[in-house]
Every structure is written in structure tokens, then in C-alpha cells.
Design a protein that fits this description.
The protein is of the alpha/beta class. It folds into 2 domains: 159 residues, Diaminopimelate Epimerase, Chain A, domain 1 (Roll), CATH 3.10.310; 181 residues, Diaminopimelate Epimerase, Chain A, domain 1 (Roll). The chain contains 11 helices and 11 strands. The strands form 2 sheets. It has a 6-stranded mixed β-sheet, with helices on both faces. The chain has a 5-stranded mixed β-sheet with strand order 1-2-3-4-9, sandwiched between helices. Helix 2 packs parallel to helix 5 and helix 4 packs antiparallel against helix 5. The longest helix is centred in the first third of the chain and has 24 residues. The chain is elongated and about 65 Å long. The N and C termini lie far apart (53 Å).
């Protein structure tokens, strides 16, 4: 009996030793020594870092610390050498309490980055609403500078405005939904699109939706204006991504308090066509209001968006069309009309200009491209920003483009 227990203890010790060694050998890209980034968000950043490393060979890293070294430049270089390695890479060292910020990079792929590009990258980090968003923006901008794995954004849209890659819509439903999406997109000169995919392939929903929009060529006109609803059927998650005029027309408040409460009940019951139709029609409502000069946004006395009874498949059948029309008029049409008259905007956000306010002074320190700056800009600790101040919060995608958006589960 004693021998068996001893054998089990030895086996357990061996397993723990091997696990610790494997953990030590795992490459890290996020070093949050102060607990400013939530665990789930840190995993998203680690996955992004691993993707960048796999596609470019460059380590893009960040360290949040409470240390305040006398020589912050030397600290950044020593941190990179001891914690990241000798390969190509870049690291931000930031003490949010003191405001000290240092950054260090090395490698042939990064030597072409000039001071103007670095200013944009680090201002994107400092001006973000949360540490998570700031780190994600910084990592994505460096990724875009490195070529995003060689992907290019096409000049023309590669798929229909309603794309079913998950096989959940019939041919007739696809034709009808595309006709509706084309009509609304052309009327308001802004793409309104929906894509169903089988899964996110382990990726973050926001990043997946942004990349789908960019690399499938969505967007109306030269400015690529639009909104895309991406639905992952297997993961039961949705993501809305906006670009160009779509960022102005579809505010955080508009997506979260008007669009989402109306299409998600359909998705929750696997009524994919109903959810897509509701989203497309309501996007048209918000686009019309935005083109009239009043994007639907937070106001002083917020009222809930008009509610509608979710119609079942039977109610949408031809024999019930008249009944559904009457019910829809009284339960949805009249409140919707009243809500339209009340919807006011208190803030517009036409792009990312306020996310790139000038001022980082960058100086080359030595031939290893070490830079440093001191900043007193506070960054909120909350890991998620939901547009509490009105307008549209924005972020950078892996292509380096500025997107707005929202996401959730159903």
C-alpha cells in the first residue's frame, strides 16, 4: 500500500514538473502585473499576440506594472531581453499610476517604422477607453504595419450583402433578404449586410466581424461605408461592425438599445431569416434618421426602443399575412412612428479624429530603437466600454482600419 501511495506521489510530482516546464516555455505577450486587464480579455490579447507572432515572426507585447525605475529606457530594454527574448519584437512598458510609458523594439521588420507611425500607434493606446482596448489597438496597428499576414483588402465586395456560410437559409430566403439589403443599401448609400458563419474558429467575435468586413470587401462607395451583422451559429454569438458613415449612423446606443433588442429574439429561437430581416429593416430606419441629420443616440430622458411581438414561422406564412400586418401595425408600427419622432441625438462621432490627438514627442535613443515618453493621461480600469457618453466608440482592426461596433450572445 505504501509503495502504491509513493508511486502515485512520484507520478504526481513528475506531472506537475512537466506542466510547470511547459508553462514556462509558453511564449507570453501580455504581462499584466497590476491586474488592470480582466482574465478573459487577457486571453483575447494573448491569442492576438500568438496570431501576430505566427504570421509575421514578430512578438508584439505589453507590460502593465507598478514599478517606477529611475532609468525607464534601460528598464524597457532589460525587460525585453529577459522576459521576451532576442528575436524581433516590440514592447510597451506602462505604469498607469505614475504615467510613465516606455517602449522598445528591435528587428529588421520594425526598423522602417518612423516617428509619425509610432506616434499614431502609441496615441491609439493612450487615448483608448480601457487598458484592454488600448492594448488591442496598439497590437492591431503594429500588425497592420507588418502586413497582417499578407492579406489585402479587395476593392470590390466578394460576397452578397446577405451571405449564408452556415447553411441556415433557403435559396428563396437568401434571394428575398438580399433584395431587401440591396434596396436599403442603395437608398441610403451605406452597406447593410448580414453574414451567417458556422463558428468563430476560436477567434474573438469583434475581430472576426471586423476582418470579415474588411477582407471580404464590404462597404458602400469609396469610403466603404456600412454595417455588418455577423452571426456565429455554432458559438451563438453575434457581432455588429461599422465603418465609415456606418460609425456615425449606428451609435453604441442605437445598436444596443434599438437594433439588438429587436433581432436577437429571432436568433435565440434559431429563426435566422426573421432575425436578418428585422436587422436589415431596422438598420434602414436608423440610416434614414441619420441621413436626416439626427443619428439615434442617447438623450437626456432615454426611453426604450419600441418593442415588437416576435412573429413565429406560422405567423409569417401567407395565410396569416393579413393578421400579421394588422398586429404589426398596432403593436409595432404606431410605437415605432412615435419613437422615430422622439429620437434625438446629442452627440455625433464622425470618425477617429479624437482618438489621435497630437503630442507624443519621440526621440531615438540608440541604434536599438529605444523610445520613451512620460504621459499623465489616465486610462479607466474597466475592461469593457459600452458607449456611456453617447456617440460611437471605435477601435482598430487587424488591417489598421477604424471600426465601431457591438457584440453579444443569444
Amino acid at each position: 500500500m505504501k509503495k502504491r501511495i509513493l508511486s502515485l506521489l512520484l507520478l504526481l510530482t513528475l506531472v506537475l514538473t512537466l506542466s510547470a516546464a511547459a508553462w514556462a516555455d509558453t511564449e507570453r505577450f501580455v504581462f499584466d502585473e497590476s491586474g488592470y486587464i480582466a482574465d478573459g480579455d487577457e486571453e483575447i490579447l494573448e491569442d492576438l499576440g500568438a496570431t501576430i507572432r505566427a504570421n509575421t515572426g514578430v512578438a508584439v507585447c505589453i507590460c502593465l506594472t507598478n514599478d517606477t525605475p529611475e532609468d525607464v529606457r534601460a528598464y524597457a530594454a532589460d525587460f525585453y531581453d529577459s522576459r521576451i527574448g532576442d528575436g524581433e519584437g516590440i514592447v510597451i512598458i506602462h505604469n498607469p499610476v505614475s504615467g510613465v510609458l516606455a517602449y522598445y523594439f528591435i528587428g529588421e521588420q520594425l526598423q522602417g517604422i518612423g516617428e509619425e507611425e509610432l506616434t499614431k500607434i502609441f496615441e491609439a493606446y493612450l487615448s483608448s477607453d480601457t487598458y484592454f482596448e488600448g492594448a488591442k489597438n496598439y497590437m492591431n496597428l503594429v500588425y497592420a504595419r507588418l502586413g497582417s499576414g499578407g492579406e489585402t483588402i479587395p476593392d470590390e465586395r466578394q460576397l452578397d450583402r446577405v451571405a449564408d456560410l452556415a447553411g441556415v437559409l433557403s435559396d428563396e430566403q437568401l434571394r428575398e433578404l438580399n433584395a431587401l439589403a440591396d434596396e436599403i443599401s442603395e437608398t441610403y448609400r451605406c452597406d447593410v449586410a448580414v453574414a451567417f458563419v458556422p463558428s468563430l474558429e476560436g477567434k474573438y467575435i469583434e475581430a472576426y466581424a471586423d476582418d470579415f468586413y474588411d477582407y471580404k470587401g464590404y462597404g458602400y462607395g469609396p469610403d466603404k461605408d456600412g454595417i455588418l451583422l455577423l452571426v456565429s451559429v455554432g458559438d451563438r454569438e453575434f457581432g455588429e461592425t461599422t465603418y465609415g458613415y456606418g460609425v456615425t449612423a449606428f451609435t453604441d446606443y442605437g445598436m444596443q438599445h434599438y437594433l439588438e433588442p429587436r433581432f436577437t429574439p429571432y436568433l435565440g429561437e434559431n429563426e435566422w431569416a426573421g432575425g436578418a430581416e428585422q436587422f436589415i429593416r431596422d438598420a434602414g430606419v436608423l440610416l434614414k434618421q441619420a441621413r436626416d441629420g439626427q443619428p439615434y443616440d442617447r438623450h437626456d430622458d432615454p426611453r426604450p426602443a419600441p418593442t415588437v411581438e416576435k412573429k413565429s414561422a406560422a405567423e409569417r406564412a401567407p395565410l396569416a399575412a393579413v393578421i400579421s400586418a394588422i398586429i404589426g401595425f398596432f403593436s409595432g408600427g404606431i410605437p415605432a412612428g412615435a419613437m422615430k419622432r422622439r429620437m434625438k441625438s446629442v452627440e455625433k462621432n464622425y470618425g477617429a479624429a479624437n482618438y489621435a490627438r497630437g503630442g507624443l514627442r519621440l526621440r531615438r535613443s540608440d541604434d536599438r530603437f529605444l523610445y520613451a515618453n512620460v504621459s499623465k493621461v489616465p486610462v479607466p480600469r474597466e475592461s469593457e466600454h459600452r458607449g456611456g457618453g453617447g456617440g460611437s466608440s471605435v477601435h482598430f482592426s487587424s488591417s489598421g482600419h477604424v471600426h465601431g461596433g457591438s457584440h453579444g450572445k443569444f
